[in-house]
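Weekly sync, protein design subgroup
Attendees: M.S., D.O., the rotation student, P.L. (late)

Item 1: inverse folding check
M.S. brought a backbone from last month's batch and wanted to see whether the design step gives back something sensible before we order anything. D.O. pointed out we never logged the input encoding, so this time it goes straight into the notes. Structure tokens as presented (376 positions):
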């Protein structure tokens, strides 16, 4: 029997949306690949959107960032003029699936995306504008290193970084509750094995799933408090792994400080991590408006709490001792951060945290002794 937490609305015919004819396609033309795109995509397959196989313990990391991007310069390629810049509310961040692993950050109030170098000095590489008002979250498109998915205002976008334009869109400038209408969506992730897009439709209190061509696949679920279905909560960020697990951070501040929900990919609930209810399937965890989240294949997750006065990060780990599994919750603090929101990790396990209130991006590396233990 389906849980009240994950009740869906009545099914619809796949590929059809309310109020539009059968066979409807998005108003923006679907991307067509030319020969150069095909060659490039063959190269980019080696950089397909990687799911996180292993998440290092947060206790392995230094508590101070070794690099912070806050003030930066941009040299206009056409005029050669150099301009001093900064961000205004750093929302979502992601790592591109390229050899260079560039960072894409949502510069919320400046209505743009910024690309930064992640390997040397964190310098600004590119600025992307155009129909990107208040971008919330961003994630790479698997096997297409020039494409990213972006949530903004009431829309889901497919953005081409080389052409610097939106090539596909779902949603409009007005909010709504139909399968193709949203209300301030935020977190987004992609299953690279299927290409399916999982999106937090935040102010509609639901998770929506779409095919790579932006068609609703008749799979969505709503979030409410455990055993208090009259109270809806707002999903913020989402992550998935290879083992049919999906974690979602949610909150409804100031009435409800938030939780991490564990679902399977069909939307059936498995566990809730919060500090309100002690009844199963709850696990006690001190969470204060959790935002960005990472999930590895072993079911370990890490989230950052936006409104925690100590800028706390909260981690769930599975520990095996004497052939028995023990679940532990760990906490980690960085005094330099004011309001962490976006979260990403590089292939070398460098942790990237976007600080929304401090308008910055912070880089954290593992302690030397932790690296040495990992290589043994």
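Designed sequence read out in the meeting:
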């Amino acid at each position: 029997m389906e849980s009240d937490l994950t009740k869906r609305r009545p099914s619809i015919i796949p590929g059809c949306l309310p109020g539009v004819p059968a066979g409807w396609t998005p108003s923006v033309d679907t991307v067509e690949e030319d020969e150069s795109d095909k060659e490039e995509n063959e190269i980019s397959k080696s950089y397909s959107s990687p799911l996180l196989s292993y998440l290092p313990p947060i206790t392995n990391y230094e508590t101070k960032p070794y690099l912070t991007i806050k003030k930066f310069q941009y040299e206009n390629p056409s005029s050669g003029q150099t301009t001093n810049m900064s961000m205004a509310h750093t929302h979502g961040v992601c790592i591109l699936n390229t050899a260079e692993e560039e960072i894409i950050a949502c510069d919320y109030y400046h209505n743009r995306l910024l690309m930064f170098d992640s390997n040397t000095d964190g310098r600004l590489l590119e600025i992307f504008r155009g129909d990107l008002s208040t971008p919330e979250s961003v994630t790479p498109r698997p096997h297409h290193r020039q494409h990213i998915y972006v949530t903004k205002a009431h829309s889901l976008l497919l953005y081409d970084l080389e052409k610097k334009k939106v090539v596909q869109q779902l949603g409009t400038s007005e909010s709504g509750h139909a399968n193709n209408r949203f209300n301030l969506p935020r977190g987004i992730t992609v299953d690279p094995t299927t290409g399916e897009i999982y999106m937090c439709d935040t102010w509609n209190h639901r998770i929506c799933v779409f095919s790579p061509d932006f068609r609703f696949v008749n799979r969505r679920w709503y979030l409410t408090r455990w055993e208090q279905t009259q109270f809806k909560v707002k999903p913020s960020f989402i992550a998935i792994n290879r083992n049919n697990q999906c974690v979602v951070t949610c909150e409804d501040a100031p009435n409800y400080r938030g939780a991490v929900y564990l679902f399977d990919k069909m939307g059936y609930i498995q566990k809730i991590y919060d500090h309100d209810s002690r009844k199963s399937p709850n696990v006690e965890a001190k969470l204060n408006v959790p935002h960005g989240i990472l999930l590895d294949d072993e079911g370990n997750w890490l989230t950052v709490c936006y409104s925690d006065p100590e800028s706390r990060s909260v981690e769930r780990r599975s520990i095996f001792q004497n052939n028995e599994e023990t679940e532990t919750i760990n906490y980690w603090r960085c005094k330099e951060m004011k309001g962490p929101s976006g979260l990403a990790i590089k292939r070398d396990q460098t942790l990237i945290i976007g600080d929304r209130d401090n308008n910055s991006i912070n880089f954290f590396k593992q302690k030397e002794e932790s690296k040495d233990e990992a290589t043994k």
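Discussion: The longest strand covers residues 312-321. The domain at 48-375 is CATH 2.120.10.30 (Neuraminidase).
Action: P.L. to compare against the previous round before Friday.
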